[in-house]
Amino acid sequence: MPDLLDPLTAFRGKPVLLALSGGSDSVGMLLALHQLGIQVTAAHFNHQIREEAVQDQGFVQDLCQRFGVPLEVGTAPVKTIAAQKGWSLEEAARNLRYGFLSRAAKQHKTEVILTAHTLNDQAETVLWQLVRGTAKATGIPPVQGRVERPWLGVSKQDIQDFLKQAGQDWREDASNQDPAFTRNFLRLNVLPELRRLNPQVDVALARFARYSREDDALLFELASNITPYTRWDQQPEALQRRLIAQSLAKAGIEFDSQHIERVQKALHSPQVQHLTFPGNHQITVQQGQISKSAVYAKPEFAYPEHLELRHRQDGDRIRLSGGTRKVSDVLTDLKIPRAERDQVWLLAEGQQVLWLGLHPAVVAEGFMDLKTDAHWMKQALQEAEKARDQDEVPIGAVIVKEGKVIAAAHNQCAALHDLTRHAELEAIRQASTGSRGYLTDCTLYVTLEPCPMCMGAILESRISRVVFGASNPKMGALGGVYDLLRNHWGHIPEVTPHVMEKQCAALLTGYFALKRQSKKGNHGT
């Protein structure tokens, strides 16, 4: 029977632990391992479920004695433990059995635990996964930690023929004939009918499981390589599901296919979505991703001693360009999850709030002398206004290092008749001229989202952080900042979007509106 022995030859020269129930499959594997001269220790677990369990244990003990195989026996009242822990009978049996096998392997210093799952077991498992609506019908894994299942391609009939030829009997589990158990129903009633349609249906189902596992492994690998700036909602749906599954698993949240689909739907919503999962776990979905738990930073700048650094209180207000508003209303408008609002740091004078530690920060009117992102973006806007006054597209940029501007520039494409003279490129040229080496520890502030050409220079110069104002909807085929940062370039800067977005966008829209009016006036004359 070479088809039975071949998968076991890989274990020659290493001790193995065999899960030996006394059924045909495990007895067949014991006989095959014995014929190959492989050093084996058997492990039998008595579930105390059937009256015949004592006879099964005695059969296994006699068998191992006859073959000269060491035997480890374990037992537990599976029904009682299942009731105590709220497990199903099958779940309890599996957990207790594999726990016993792990302990036995450790005791006997064996690195490999073999189980005799067969091609038929694989077909039943795949069919059961499909029937109950499992997200991925990948069947029984051939390797799972130290557990290996080398006979997943071997049929039960071949094993029983092998035993009959050797004159070796085995034990039959009467509960396997009870169709009240779903797996038994599939084995006894469904699979025989499917075999009438296709005699090779077991092979087909096993092949389906193998392909599914291989596809799943590849997709999870691709998902693992996606950068933090990738919008999940723009990825293929198969990758979306793996990204969601990885994120939920990392957070320790239990989930099923319905939970994944719920998150997947939320990815495409323009509104921030707050979802509750089993165990009262909550996640936030926004901007095409699952938001990580926010960590609200304290100010990284010097501030007057009379200001108080604290969390929000009832009655707190902040004066913004549109008027004075309640801090609670500002946090609501910015979609800060309710459970996180008391974690936000703020600077206040009494109940007059001057700074909110969000990302980007919210700064009160008249408090712009603080060197926040808004402070530096205001200087980039001044550069953009210079470009507008010179009839250039109004884009400005500054580069800041250690609290000082080391470069400031604006768009000069028209003046120099050179389409590469973008504001951020000009600023990088200035900063590089006075710097030895890369622009690490530098932050680039630019009023418009950088184009692909400028992002190339940003990556090459190793700028640590990019802060931009208005989004650029006309990036062309290569896409914008987040499209480019989906790929691995060796260096990925931190990106903060939409700082003083309204002011930056207003400068651009105003400039182009005047250009259109001027064009219409020229046509009129």
How would you describe what is shown here?
The protein is α/β, with parallel strands linked by helices and 525 residues long. Helix content is 43%, strand content 17%. Strands 3-2-1-4-6-5 form a six-stranded mixed sheet, with helices on both faces. Strands 10, 11, 12, 13, 14 and 15 form a six-stranded mixed sheet that branches. A five-stranded mixed sheet has the order 17-16-18-19-20. Strand 14 (352-356) and strand 15 form a beta hairpin. Helix 6 crosses helix 8 (182-197), helix 9 crosses helix 10 and helix 13 packs parallel to helix 18 (501-524). The mean pLDDT is 87.
List the helices and strands and how they pair.
Elements: H1 2-5, E1 16-19, H2 24-35, E2 40-46, H3 53-67, E3 71-75, H4 78-85, H5 89-107, E4 112-114, H6 119-131, E5 143-144, E6 147-148, H7 156-166, H8 182-197, H9 201-224, H10 237-250, H11 257-267, E7 273-277, E8 281-286, E9 289-291, E10 308-310, E11 317-320, E12 323-326, H12 327-333, E13 346-349, E14 352-356, E15 362-363, H13 373-389, E16 396-401, E17 404-410, H14 413-416, H15 423-433, E18 442-448, H16 452-461, E19 465-470, H17 481-484, E20 494-496, H18 501-524
Parallel strand pairs: 1-2, 1-4, 2-3, 4-6, 11-14, 18-19, 19-20
Antiparallel strand pairs: 5-6, 7-8, 8-9, 10-13, 11-12, 13-14, 14-15, 16-17, 16-18
